[in-house]
Amino acid sequence: MSLFACLAIASTPAMATPCTNLQSLQLQHATITSATDNTSGTFVVPNSNPPQTITGLPAFCRVAATLTPTADSSIKIEVWLPETTWNGRFLGTGGGGFQGVISYNELASGIQAGFAATNSDLGTGVSGCNSLFCGSAGNMGNPLAIEFGDPPNPTAGLFGHPERIKDFGYRAIHLMTVRGKEIANAFYPRNPGKAYFAGCSTGGQNALMEAQRFPDDYDGILAGAAAFNRTHLHMAGLASWQNAHASPGRFIQPGQMTLINKAVIAQCVGRDGGAKTDQFLTDPRDCPFDPKVLQCTGGNAPPACLTSEQVTTIQKYYAGTIDPVNGDVINPGSERGNETDNVLALGLAFQERLPEPAFDGLFYWVFGQSFGFPSSAHNFQNFDFHRDVDTVDDQLAAVLNATSTDLGEFREHGGKLLMYHGWADPLIPSQSSINYFNALVADHNRGFEQVSFEPDRDGGKLRRTQSYARLFMVPGMFHCSGGPGPNVFDALTPLVTWVEKGVAPDTIVATKFVNDTPPAVEMTRPLCVYPKVAKYNGSGSTSIAANFTCVADEHDFNQTPAPKYGP
After folding, report:
1. Regarding beta strands 416-422 and 469-474, do their DSSP bridges make them parallel or antiparallel, or are they unpaired?
2. Half-sphere exposure of 415 (CA within 13 A, CB side)
């Protein structure tokens, strides 16, 4: 999880325009619906149940607006403007899943660090979308509630709404940025000096879309666990659900993901650079664990071991999404070490318990409401990973997938891209971010070949790429936050330093709090600029970051999609 440090605060700004006067501000294809001062130090999140109150806020001007770039668009944005603590910078923020709501915690973190901050619902709220579902049974609410008896209520989500799909894919974030800057410019006596974007998951996709399509929007971009290869990522979720539901015997029972994880750690911990006492892997690519070692023998029975069918489920979980006819990799597999029974981590334990796959709303946008009915020609139970992939890609890939490696314009105007991804992410395969970074290094015009990082062997491509783009892998972190490893860190401040002072980060210190709750610290560990990994020095506490050194790690195998599906 990336926490924002308090960046240097500029002198107290005198407001050029009183907050309430912003409601009459005229902007293209936009209507400002409210502009109010908040000096209470708190904010109650609208429609939260139970009510969620955010505290510790500076005085700020809250501006809400609706953007309508097309007749079918309805993009909600909010801009929060610190009234006395502005640091002179602008911050765009992302969200998760299908969004559909404003991420108020992102706005709060932004203004607490001194930024003028903005966020968007990505234009999907008008279609009844939420973070997990947009066009499927889950539209009616909490997906875990569906498991316990709520009847499905399928909808088509964005089916028949191509302009709203464009809004979700790239347009909403860009227009949020343009209008957000205009609002900030009207409020403050001077324009923001530098602009930054920070997002994880869908926010990471937003981040890469900005760098690729709108390179002048931001000076620095922070992209975490980016859902950039979106159509194929959602196919991976579909494949994972089909895998566990192929037969009753394929289902992984409660507690068995923990059993598997313990076996993975016992076999592989310490061989990948970290400490032998770690409860997570530093680089899972060094782990050859085969779940077959847990197959039941003699009188043993589940859940203390795995049946042959369950072994198959986990082997396919690691193998990735594969075209069954030609063997092409459509999306990388899950990493060893991400196994968890925690359903909130959004991994297999969560996915297999749902009556239909989470995040499958994207397929409703192509096939319509019938995708939710087993009797239809195309549905979530019989999706064909040879025949149907192109059907989805033909309609959605160009709009949703942020796969271009042409960041020339972003680089030329001085833009800096900082990426991060948890090695124990059970939702978005960790390998995805490595594949994108490696593609930047390799140069997309020459294909997505394996990249060698041996000194003087890559012709300086790694060094040149790291002059504007850097990746940090986070050992033991789940999807964007949480997990058994150090998972709290500030990546935004190093990005600001890189942009404004020209000092690129080589390491970022991450913290693991006891029970993931501050302030008691369990350990700290350096996050190393990829492709380096943290190696224990051999003496001193393994709970202290200073006892680890970032070293080269150059010979790992990277599972990459077939070129038509990659990087």
Report:
1. parallel
2. 24
CB 380 within 8 A of CB 360: yes
Per-position pLDDT tens, the chain of length 567: 555 665 655 545 656 789 999 999 999 999 999 999 999 999 999 988 899 999 999 999 999 999 999 999 999 999 999 999 999 999 999 989 999 999 999 999 999 999 999 999 999 987 677 776 777 654 333 434 333 233 333 346 899 999 999 999 999 999 999 999 999 999 999 888 999 999 999 999 999 999 999 999 999 999 999 999 999 999 999 999 999 999 999 999 999 999 999 999 999 998 888 899 999 999 999 999 999 999 999 989 999 999 999 999 999 999 999 999 999 999 999 999 999 999 999 999 999 999 999 899 999 999 998 888 888 888 899 999 999 999 999 999 999 999 999 999 999 999 999 999 999 999 999 999 999 999 999 974 443 344 555 544 566 899 999 999 999 999 999 999 999 999 999 999 999 999 999 999 999 999 999 999 999 999 999 999 999 999 999 999 999 999 999 999 877 899 999 999 989
| Angle between helix 202-213 and helix 172-187 axes, rounded to 10 deg | 80
DSSP strands (E only) in 189-299: 194-200, 220-224
**Distance from the Cα of residue 408 to its chain's centroid:** 23
Report whether 68 contacts 102 (CB < 8 A).
no
| Cα 87 to Cα 196: distance, rounded to the nearest angstrom | 12
Cα–Cα distance for residue pair 420/214, rounded to 1 Å: 21
CA dist., res. 473 & res. 221, Å (int): 16
Amino acid letter, 29: H
Q: Output b/e per residue, 132-166; b: 16+ Cβ within 10 A.
A: bbbbbbbbbeebeebeeebeeebbbbbbebeebbb
pTM of the model: 0.93
The alpha carbon of 279 is separated from its chain's Cα centroid by a whole number of angstroms, namely 23
Give dist(CA 339, CA 291) in Å, integer.
12
